């Protein structure tokens, strides 16, 4: 059972494939920003997510091509997948998602049975010249917060790919970046807590 395994991060053995659901489809992005990857890019299995794993997409072609459509094209080409691609002005949803279940992606080997994967456009975010645009960070924070609320994912289960890599060769999205991202996410969520909102309404 996935919930019982959450603390130890041990996958169910083996998961019984759950290819279909009668749950309603969900779109966390505007209609124009839903672009579904081909079926051979992801597992024909639905999972109940309890983690969100952040990535950089590794695009080495320069900042001008740090774009969600390029992330999509690359994933399609290499037959890999993530649930979202985020750039400086938009988030693309790339896989089917439902009320409590989501399509299993090929985003983080060993952890896909429980994870929503989010690709941020770019690479080596810890290098000063490679820091992602402010708009990209803001969009990622907002998206992750929205997913946490919807799927009841706790703050401690918003993690970096380098923290969920059984082979130990992933560095994305960077140690410094991830620490900053957690600060941003915590601040964003505090700013929109019911208590804070009530207080600011009174002010
Ligand atoms: Zn990654």
What are the defining features of this structure?
203 residues; Lysozyme-like; five-stranded mixed β-sheet; two-stranded antiparallel sheet; 5 helices
Task: State the gist of this model.
With 203 residues, this protein is α/β, with parallel strands linked by helices. The protein has helices at 2-5, 68-78, 134-151, 175-191, 194-202, and strands at residues 46-47, 51-56, 84-86, 91-93, 102-103, 115-120, 158-160. Strand 3 and strand 4 form a beta hairpin.
Question: What layout of secondary structure does this protein have?
Answer:
Elements: H1 2-5, E1 46-47, E2 51-56, H2 68-78, E3 84-86, E4 91-93, E5 102-103, E6 115-120, H3 134-151, E7 158-160, H4 175-191, H5 194-202
Parallel strand pairs: 2-6, 2-7, 3-6
Antiparallel strand pairs: 1-5, 3-4
Helix pairs in contact: 3-4
How large, in whole angstroms, is the Cα Rg? 17 Å
Secondary-structure arrangement, i.e. CATH architecture = 3-Layer(aba) Sandwich
Q: Number of helix segments?
A: 5
Find the CATH topology: Lysozyme-like
Compute the number of structural domains.
1
Largest sheet: 5 strands, mixed
Describe the structure.
This protein has 203 residues and is α/β, with parallel strands linked by helices. It has one domain (29-202): Lysozyme-like (3-Layer(aba) Sandwich), CATH 3.40.80.10. The protein is 29% helix and 12% strand. It has five helices and seven strands, in the order αββαββββαβαα. The protein has helices spanning 2-5, 68-78, 134-151, 175-191, 194-202, and strands at residues 46-47, 51-56, 84-86, 91-93, 102-103, 115-120, 158-160. The strands form two sheets. It has a five-stranded mixed β-sheet, sandwiched between helices. Strand 3 and strand 4 (91-93) form a beta hairpin. Helix 3 packs across helix 4 (175-191). The protein is globular, with a radius of gyration of 17 Å. It starts with a helix and ends with a helix. It binds zinc ion. The site of zinc ion has 4 residues, from loops. Residues 55, 161, 170, 172 line the site of zinc ion (ZN).
């Amino acid at each position: 059972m996935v919930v019982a395994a959450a603390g130890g991060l041990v996958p169910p053995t083996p998961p019984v494939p759950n290819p279909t659901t009668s749950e309603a489809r969900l779109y966390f992005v505007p209609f124009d920003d839903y672009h579904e990857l081909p079926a051979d890019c992801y597992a024909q299995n639905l999972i109940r997510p309890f983690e969100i794993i952040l990535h950089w997409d590794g695009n080495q072609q320069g900042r001008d091509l740090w774009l969600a459509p390029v992330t999509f094209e690359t994933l399609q080409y290499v037959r890999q997948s993530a649930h979202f691609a985020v750039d400086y002005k938009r988030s693309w949803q790339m896989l089917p998602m439902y009320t409590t279940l989501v399509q299993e992606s090929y985003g983080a080997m060993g952890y896909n049975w429980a994870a929503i994967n989010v690709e941020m456009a770019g690479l080596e975010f810890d290098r000063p010249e490679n820091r992602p645009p402010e708009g990209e960070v803001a969009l990622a924070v907002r998206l992750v917060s929205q997913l946490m609320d919807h799927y009841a994912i706790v703050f401690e289960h918003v993690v970096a790919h380098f923290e969920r890599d059984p082979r130990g060769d992933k560095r994305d999205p960077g140690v410094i970046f991830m620490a900053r991202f957690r600060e941003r996410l915590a601040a964003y969520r505090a700013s929109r807590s019911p208590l804070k909102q009530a207080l600011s309404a009174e002010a």
